[in-house]
Structure formats: C-alpha cells, structure tokens
Amino acid sequence: MTSPVASQGPAAPSSSIGQSPARPASGAPGGPGPDIAAESRTDLARRLLRVARPVIAPLGISVVCRLIALLLGVALFAVGGWAVAGRAGGEATWSIAATVWVLVAMSLAKGLFRYLEQFSGHYVAFRSLALLRTFFYDRLEPQAPAATEGEDSGDLLSRVTKDIDRIEVFFAHTLAPGLTAIVAPLLVLCWLGASVSWWAALVLLPFLVLVGGVVPRLGEASTDRAARRIRASRGELAQHVTDSVQGVREVLAFGNQEARLAGMARIEERIAEGQQTSSRVVSARRGLNQFLLGAGMVAMLAVAAWLHARGDIGTAQVGLALGTALGSFAPMLAVEDFAADLDQAFASARRVFAVTERRPLVAGPEARGRAAAESDGTGDVLVDHVAFAYPRPAGEGTDEGGPGASGPGGPSRPVVLHDVSVRIPAGRTTAIVGASGSGKSTLAALIERMWDVDAGAIRLGGADIRDLDLHRLRELVAYAPQRPYVFNDTVRANLLLARPGATDEQLMRVCRQVGLARFLADEPDGLDTRVGEMGERLSGGQRQRLALGRALLRDAPVTILDEATSQLDRATEAEVLAGIRAATAGRTLIVIAHRISTVADADQIVVLDSGRVVETGTYAELVPADGRGPGALASLVRREARPA
Ligand SMILES: Nc1ncnc2c1ncn2[C@@H]1O[C@H](COP(=O)(O)OP(=O)(O)OP(=O)(O)O)[C@@H](O)[C@H]1O
Q: What helix, strand, coil percent values describe the chain, rounded to 5?
C-alpha cells in the first residue's frame, strides 16, 4: 500500500510518504548522518581526536618521551660505532671505560623515557577508550527507542566493547610512533649530514622513506577492505552467538543445533579469509622491509668506505655513520608494526561512528530550530489528520552488515496510518481496538513520540508534541508496553526506574493496584525479590504487572497501556484494569486492547481498521444490545465471542 498522503497539520512536513521519504536530509535530526563508510582515515583520526581531546596533554608527553627514547637509541648505536671504530683505526676517541659508562647512562635514560612513554601512552589509550564508550552511549541514547528498536543487540555490544577496544591501537601505538617516525629521522639525517657527510644522509634518506612511508602502505586498500570485513563479521558473530544463547530453548526444541553451528562456521570462515588476506600482505611488507634494512646498511657501508677512501671522514666517523644508520631504522620499522593493527582500528572506528553519527529520529524543538512550547498539562490528546509509514531500518543497504551510514527512508514505505483523527479527552479512558496489524501500537508510539508523524500533528494539552521538550513529554506520558523489559535486579529497583525517589509505601501501593502485592507477600524478600535476567523468575503476567506498576508510579497526566495486560487471564485482566482506572482517576488513560470485553466500559472506544479510524463512540453507541449490526466494533465483538 503506497498511497500518497497529503500534509494536513500546521507543522507537518509536506511530502508523499508512499513514494518518497518524508525524512529530513542528512545532517538534520532524523536524517541519516554523514557517510562514515566513505570517510578518509584522516577524517576518522580527526573524529577520534575530538572525542579524546581531554587527553591531548598526556598524549604530547608520550610523543616527546618516545622521541627522546628513539634518539637515545640511535645515539647508542652511533656512539658505540664511533668509539669502537675509532679505537680500531687508532684515532683518538673515548677510552673503553668512558664509552661503557656513557652507553650505560644512555641506556638507563632510554629505559626511563621508554617507561614514561609507555605509561603516558597507555594512560591516554585507556582514558580515550573510556571517553569513547561514554560518547557511544551518549550518542545512542537520544536515538532510542525508535532507532535502536529491533537492532542487533549482539552487534551493538560488539561495537561498544570489542570495536572500541580495537581503537586502543590508534591511541596507544599509532600517534606517538607515527609522529616520531617523521621527526626522529629528520633530526638524525640532519645530524648525520652535519657530523659525518651530507652524502651519507642522502644515501640513507630513500631507504628510510621506503621503510617507513612506502612499504607500510603497500596493499593498504586490500588490508583495509579485509579489516572492514573482519570487523563486520565479528559483529555478526556476536549477534549469532547472542541469538543462539538467548534462543537456546528453541534451538534445542527444534533440533536446530547443527544449522546454528554451521551458520557460526560460515562467519568464522569469512573472518579467517579476511585474516589470511591481511597476513599475506603484512608478511610481504615485513619481508620487504628486512630486505631494505639490509640494503640500506650495505649502501651506507659503501658510501662510508668511499668517503673514507677519499679522506673525507676518519674510521671513527665510518663507525658513527653505520651505527646511526642501523639505529635510525628502528622508528621506521615501527610504522609497519602498527600499520596492520591500524587497519583494524580504523575499521572499528568506522563501526563505532556509523552508530554515533546517526541522527536521532526525533529531536527536541531546539535541535529543530524552534522555540519550546508548553503543554497546558491537562492530558488532552488530539490526533489531527495523522499519516505515518515506518522508516526503513538504519543500516539497511550498507556494506557493513549492521546499523550504519544509510539512513531511513527509501523508495517505498508501506503506509501504516492514513489520515487518522481522534480526540482523546483529558481525564477519560479511551480504548483503541482493532484487528491485529491495524496500527493500534503505532498510534500509541506516535503519541509517545517514538517516531514523528509524516503528516498531520499530535497535540498534547494544546501543544504540538514536536514542540515540547522531550524530557517534558516523557513526564507527561507514561507508557506500559506489551513486552516490557525487566532489568536483572530486584522488584524495587525495577519500579524505582519510573520514580527514583519513591518510598516503599508508594511502591507497595502501586503493587496493590496492579495485583502484584499477593506475589510479593509470598516472597521472603518482598520488594527485594530478584527477578532474574529479562525477568525470567517472573511469569509473563507478573512481568507485565511490574511494567504497569512503573507506569502508575510515573503519575503522568497521560498513561498508555499498549496491550499491557495481554498475558493475564480475562478475569484478572478486568480486575487489574479496574485497579488502574481507579489509580488514574481524573487522568487520561489510553488502553490498547485485544479483548474488547475488558474495555467495554471505556468512556470512548476508537476502532482502527487497516490504519484508518472506522468508528468512535461508547460501547453502547457502537454495539446494539442484541450484538447484531454492521458496525466494525460489533463485528469484532462477535468474532471475540466465537469459540476458538
Ligand atoms: N517497528 C516497525 N517497523 C516497521 N513496521 C512496523 C513496525 N512496527 C509495526 N510495524 C508494521 O505496522 C503495522 C501496524 O502494526 P501495529 O503494531 O501498530 O499493529 P497493532 O494493531 O498494534 O497489531 P497487534 O494487535 O498485533 O499488536 C503492521 O503491518 C506492522 O508490520
């Protein structure tokens, strides 16, 4: 179904949701965000450094310490070569004892600076990882619940743990080695030119450039592609394992073990292929570098011998030149050492930023350049000519197999709600009923502003909910879903989520209102009863009551129950709903129900059919006393009365 829906509300975006996305463009709230997959490494490095700005100072210390340690390393070879060769050639250099003492002192100093470099480097790395994790969660939170709903939780977990861990390489083993690989050889070459010969410096230069600048980039495109495949497959693997563990009952019950294992083996195979590609290139690069090191030394030996034969330099300087050359390769070889890990670090950074740079689907008025409005707080809800189609899931169509760069929208999105208009009066109970898939939960989600309407508007207490501050909106609307998430904690902690300062008396009152008090009375720990992972120690009905308790604790002007009592038997459901209605007396209650009998006494019943409002009225108005009649509610009632 892809019919165009015209914009009707004053603040509504004007577009046809069936054919073209009514979503804001990239960069705006709800837009897809920048294309991280296409960003260069320099852009990614900039992003990483922006997040790690608070640790730039210790990073500077790490770079300076590494530079000093490297120069001391080169000097060790140079001084050793100079002293030994000088003595062998009968030239006046230092005594053996003096040389040994100088070398020992330099080694100690080198060790100290190395320690300082490592210490500050790792401090930077671990602080940066902590900053990145906080940044990740901070950016993810405003995207929820719409953009994170139905997302691969295993893959997200893999991004926030494994991928962020991988980025450690960038902070701990890349920045300092990378910067010093540029500065150290420049200083060494200048010193070699000034103290031995510019010919020697000139001969050494191309070897250093090749080892540190050219070889590490050979095959970079293929190692980068392999690294991206590996990181994406690792995310997939995490998701596969999460699914297999959480669905272990189904896997065993349907004898699906072999298929799950085969699926895992296929992902592992892809990871192994990526690793092989990477190690082939890396091995070739390392072999080539060793060759260049040897060739560089031979070239240096040749030029030193030539200069010595011409009488330009003495034997000690020959030793100095050779020692310096040997020492100067160390910082350049380090580039190749981190280059391979850097591929993985950047691939991980892409996966992290693909999530963090996604724009939230709904944004507060300030982010949309509008002044915040205020609701009159009455709980009066007006759904005004609303049309809506779900955005395509984020990440659909990306090459990374997860949430990512491509945004919502698309050529054709099925319209779920068509020109829906309903007035939900303050302080009354409104029931929304209709066949499965008719759009009841979608309407509730739009009132809660999980998504924004494509056309029309929803007003709460007179204000368009898009103009209300998001925190304020959450205070005004409490929500109990059909499948609530229950934290692996106590009943008390799960309830306090809704109101952290609630007293035990308030908690017990809502427990009584939702029929949870009897269960708690039988538990020795009462409110401190632990509910287990995903509330596994509770029945489905008890889990729902816990969610209802949370919604009541919120004490909001509007409470939405989205089939929140569906797992209770008919009699209990009626009992619990009566308790909730008493508790929310004078406030707006919106009940989405499957069983019409339980909401027959609602002040208003709205019937949805295929995303359209087909009837509105009281039960008595819509269903004749004999139960006959052509009305939509009457036929739903007859269907419900039919034996299953
Ligand atoms: N997150 C989503 N993304 C894409 N489509 C969705 C999403 N949630 C629901 N839909 C689709 O929207 C339509 C309406 O679903 P909705 O959940 O609102 O119906 P409902 O009347 O509440 O159904 P039920 O009574 O079975 O819960 C369905 O076709 C469904 O497939």
A: 60, 10, 30
Report the alpha-carbon distance of residue 579 to residue 132 in Å, rounded.
46
Residue of 10, 30, 1, 8 lying closest to 387 (CA atoms): 8
Q: Is the CB of 90 under 6 A from ligand 1?
A: no
Q: In what order do the strands lie in the sheet with 612-617?
A: 477-480, 558-562, 588-592, 429-434, 604-609, 612-617
Residue 86 pLDDT: 84
Residues pairing with 423 in the sheet: 382
The whole-angstrom separation of Cα 427 and Cα 274 is 61
Using an 8 Å Cβ cutoff, are 261 and 302 in contact?
no
Any atom of ligand 1 within 6 Å of the Cβ of 606:
no
**Domain residue spans in the chain?**
36-220+286-356, 421-641
Residue 522 is encoded by which pair of tokens?
A: 């039988």
Residue to mutate (ligand 1; options 413, 441, 451, 563; most atoms within 8 A of CB): 441
CA angle 311, 316, 317 (to 5 degrees): 65
Does residue 483 have its Cβ closer than 6 Å to ligand 1?
no
pLDDT, tens digit (0-9, with 9 covering 90-100), for 341-358 = 888 889 899 989 988 888
C-alpha pair distances (Å), 368 with each of 350, 357, 371: 27, 17, 9
Query: Tokens 């690069």 belong to which residue?
Result: 285
Strands 455-460, 463-464: pairing kind = antiparallel
CATH number of 421-641: 3.40.50.300
Q: 3-state SS string over 49-66?
A: HHHCHHHHHHHHHHHHHH
What is the reported pLDDT for 402?
A: 37
pLDDT digits (tens, 9 = 90+) for 238-280: 889 988 888 888 888 878 888 999 999 999 999 999 999 999 9
Give the separation between CA 226 and CA 216, rounded to whole angstroms. 16
Closest CA to 490 of 528, 540, 535: 528
- Residues in the chain, pLDDT under 70: 1-33, 92, 145-151, 393-412, 643-644
Q: From the CA of 104, how far away is ligand 1's center (Å)?
A: 75
Q: Around Cβ 436, how many Cβ atoms within 10 Å?
A: 6
Nearest of 622, 592, 616, 591 to residue 604 by alpha carbon:
616
Question: Which CATH number applies to 36-220+286-356: 3.30.750.24, 1.10.3210.10, 1.20.1560.10, 3.30.70.141?
Answer: 1.20.1560.10
Q: Evaluate whether 36-220+286-356 and 421-641 have a shared fold.
A: no
Task: Supply the pLDDT for residue 64.
Answer: 93
437 CA distance to ligand 1 centroid (A)? 5
Dist. CA 438 → ligand 1 center (Å): 7
Structure tokens at 504: 């035990």
H or E stretch at 592: strand 588-592
Ligand 1: residue whose CA is nearest its atom 30: 437
Is the CB–ligand 1 distance for residue 440 below 6 Å?
yes
Please give the single-letter amino acid code of residue 282.
V
Per the structure block, which two tokens stand in for 344?
Answer: 């993985």
Residue nearest (by alpha carbon) to ligand 1 atom 20: 437
Tell me how far the alpha carbon of residue 190 lies from the centroid of ligand 1, in angstroms: 71
E strands present in 72-221: none
Compute, in angstroms, the gap from residue 16 CA to the centroid of ligand 1: 20
